[in-house]
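Why should sequence recovery work at all? Because a backbone constrains its sequence more than one might expect. Tight turns favour small or flexible residues, buried strands favour hydrophobic ones, and helices have their own preferences. The token representation captures these environments compactly. In the example below, the structure is given first.
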């Protein structure tokens, strides 16, 4: 007589799940993340490292003598440039080391911060939103394994970037000492670590990856704004910003390591909060619960445009508030520039009068508003693609809604939303600048300069739409166009690019406003190209098969 026995494996499996550590499976998740981002991570790391190392040879070529470097230091020693790049240390004896820190560290820190937020949310909240985390947690995977693995990989990427910079910068430019280069790498890595913690915490707050990314990006913007306003006016504000802490190391000048302890402490606090929150919420849920929906859909949801607007309303409002605050803050700096130039006759001889310097500063601020509005437009177009890949487009298209109408609704939100963002940012900038300068004519000039960037913004959006229609798997390449605009527009003067390199940027035609003449022909051409690309994208979306993941 035989006795039936149950297979002990399920019982062992359950025991492992119930009695295992909250970090069980972390190593497996780390390998999974590295496998999944085997292309993305090297691109991020290589782009940041090469942008720094590749720019170093330009310093001795452009400023070969001490007199040239001192002239450059005088150009940087004004409120407009301080607001954009940070406080200038070592300007009394402007060495290549001081030049590297003053002109590169702030931009590299922002890139590290954005990379950290995007990657952290991608491997935490985005995984929960798609349901993959719940599937993995059904096996032997601890509650904190996903967050720990993501933090380990992203923090490791930051540390690797810092190490590569420390190793590669001295041989590229002999004047950069190894010890100071190590501090430079540690400073930018510390900013990345802080925003890795910010991304981890943001992923716990909301149920949606898009909202978590928005929170993290907003934190980067706040840190940049606090640093800028603090460096120009109230220095105490700069000490609230992790970017300000990195710049207070005074690398290549005084080499102070202790400000980085603030970054380490804040990172530890943020990560601890993220872990504590993970222990107190359900998988897929956020710290802030979603509002209960209405029992019946409103009249606005009866159309594809209403649905698209509802899906993107939160993001549009957040971006709008951000650009409005950005414009208000930087417009208020106009009076500081005027006072600085009026008190410095030598600088007037070098740069011209205050109006010239203010126009140059405002042109950069308006360009940054345009770049941000274009970034929103790309995210709005990518929402169309995500609705398709998530399978939510098919039920809508199964009704009487045509593909052109469905896609056109999201495109309209992208185009109209970018217009609203430029209105918000342009109005904020124009109002505070005109009040600060006590000149009503400034309002119309700055507002017009903001509107002149719309053709370039819409061309970037149209390129993304064309990719959605013709090659949806390549739609993320549209970010390359925007990145090109950032590099050429914001850093072009520093790198001294050839004219043809700057002229092909979608933002070049209006980049000289205010104070210069717009490229009217180029603006018209961009409008025509945008219309054509939008048509091509809609036609392609209408004819191709839908894809889901």
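From this structural description, the recovered sequence reads:
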């Amino acid at each position: 007589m035989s006795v039936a026995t149950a297979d002990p494996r399920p019982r062992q499996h359950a025991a492992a799940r119930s009695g295992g550590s909250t970090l069980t499976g972390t190593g497996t998740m780390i390998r999974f993340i590295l496998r999944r981002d085997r292309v993305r991570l090297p691109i991020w790391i290589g782009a940041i490292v090469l942008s720094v190392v590749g720019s170093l040879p330009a310093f001795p070529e452009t400023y070969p003598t001490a007199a040239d470097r001192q002239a450059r230091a005088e150009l940087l020693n004004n409120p407009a440039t301080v607001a954009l790049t940070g406080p200038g240390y070592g300007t009394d004896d402007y060495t290549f080391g001081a030049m590297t820190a003053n002109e590169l560290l702030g931009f590299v820190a922002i890139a590290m911060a954005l990379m950290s937020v995007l990657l952290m949310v991608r491997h935490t909240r985005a995984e929960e939103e798609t349901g993959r985390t719940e599937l993995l947690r059904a096996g032997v995977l601890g509650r904190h394994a996903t967050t720990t693995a993501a933090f380990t990989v992203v923090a490791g990427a930051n540390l690797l970037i810092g190490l590569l910079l420390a190793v590669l910068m001295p041989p590229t430019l002999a004047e950069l000492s190894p010890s100071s280069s190590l501090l430079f790498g540690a400073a930018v890595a510390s900013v990345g670590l802080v925003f890795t913690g910010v991304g981890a915490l943001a992923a716990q707050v909301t149920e949606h990856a898009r909202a978590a990314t928005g929170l993290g990006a907003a934190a980067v913007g706040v840190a940049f704004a606090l640093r800028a306003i603090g460096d120009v006016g109230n220095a105490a504000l700069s000490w609230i910003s992790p970017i300000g802490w990195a710049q207070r190391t005074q690398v290549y000048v005084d080499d102070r390591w202790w400000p980085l302890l603030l970054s380490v402490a804040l990172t530890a606090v943020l990560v601890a909060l993220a872990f504590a929150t993970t222990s107190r919420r359900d998988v897929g849920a956020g710290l802030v619960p979603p509002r209960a929906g209405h029992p019946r859909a409103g009249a606005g949801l009866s159309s594809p445009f209403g649905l698209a607007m509802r899906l993107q309303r939160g993001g549009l409002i957040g971006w709008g508030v951000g650009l409005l605050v950005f414009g208000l803050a930087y417009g208020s700096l106009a009076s500081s520039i005027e006072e600085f130039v009026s008190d410095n006759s030598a600088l007037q001889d070098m740069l011209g009068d205050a109006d010239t310097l203010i126009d140059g500063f405002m042109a950069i601020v308006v360009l940054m508003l345009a770049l941000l509005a274009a970034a929103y437009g790309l995210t709005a177009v990518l929402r169309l693609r995500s609705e398709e890949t998530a399978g939510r487009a098919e039920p809508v298209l199964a009704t009487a809604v045509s593909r052109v109408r469905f896609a056109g609704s999201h495109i309209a939100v992208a185009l109209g939303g970018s217009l609203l963002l430029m209105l918000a940012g342009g109005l904020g900038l124009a109002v505070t600048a005109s009040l600060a300068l006590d000149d009503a004519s400034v309002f119309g000039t700055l507002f017009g300069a903001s509107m002149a960037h719309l053709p370039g913004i819409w061309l970037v959006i149209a390129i993304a739409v064309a990719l959605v229609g013709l090659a949806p798997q390549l739609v993320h390449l549209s970010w390359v166009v925007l990145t090109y605009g950032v590099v050429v527009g914001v850093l072009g003067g520093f790198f001294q690019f050839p004219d043809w390199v700057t002229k092909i940027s979608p933002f070049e035609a209006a980049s000289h406003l205010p104070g210069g003449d717009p490229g009217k022909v180029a603006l018209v051409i961009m409008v025509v190209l945008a219309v054509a690309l939008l048509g091509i994208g809609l036609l392609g979306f209408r004819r191709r098969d839908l894809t889901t993941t």
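A few observations help interpret the result. The radius of gyration is 25 Å.
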